[in-house]
Amino acid sequence: MDCIVDHYFLVLEKLGDKIEALQERVAVDPSDEVLKEIHEMKRETMYFRKAVWPVREMVNGLTRLESSLVREGTEVFFRDVYDHAVQVIDATETYREMIGGMQDLFMSSISNRMNGVMKVLTIIATIFIPLTFIAGIYGMNFDYMPELGWRWAYPLVWVVMAAVAVVMLVYFRRKRWL
Questions:
Q1: Domains delineated in the chain
Q2: What is the pLDDT of residue 63?
Q3: What is the mean pLDDT of residues 42-59?
């Protein structure tokens, strides 16, 4: 039994290596494939915990058992095996919490990426809405707009539109939105 529980530590070590590698991938490139691996890792950890828990309970029962089959000298060994099983379960719980943290990190990375995209789209829309308004007014078919008869009206509208865009860009930079 001691050998079996001691081999759980080897499994834990491999599981820990996988979790560390997955943490690095989550930080570098949060993709759908990484999310699938996180869920798979969580499932593996749950299966491992379900496999270790009965061993712990069984060894705990053997330490309390008053039987002629269990000698007084072997109780110390059963307590040692029980302590190792508890350590394995504690480490498994720690890994489960780390995987939960990875899920949170993945979701916040995706959310931050989406916030950046939304910010750029909002800035582009904010710049083009006033320009569309100006173009809409001067695109109407009126005969009696005073500016229509001016020689420099068309270039002046372009200058005003460019100035509006530049002023908005400068404003966004000063607010550190760009």
A1: 2-114 (1.20.58.340), 118-174 (1.20.58.340)
A2: 77
A3: 91
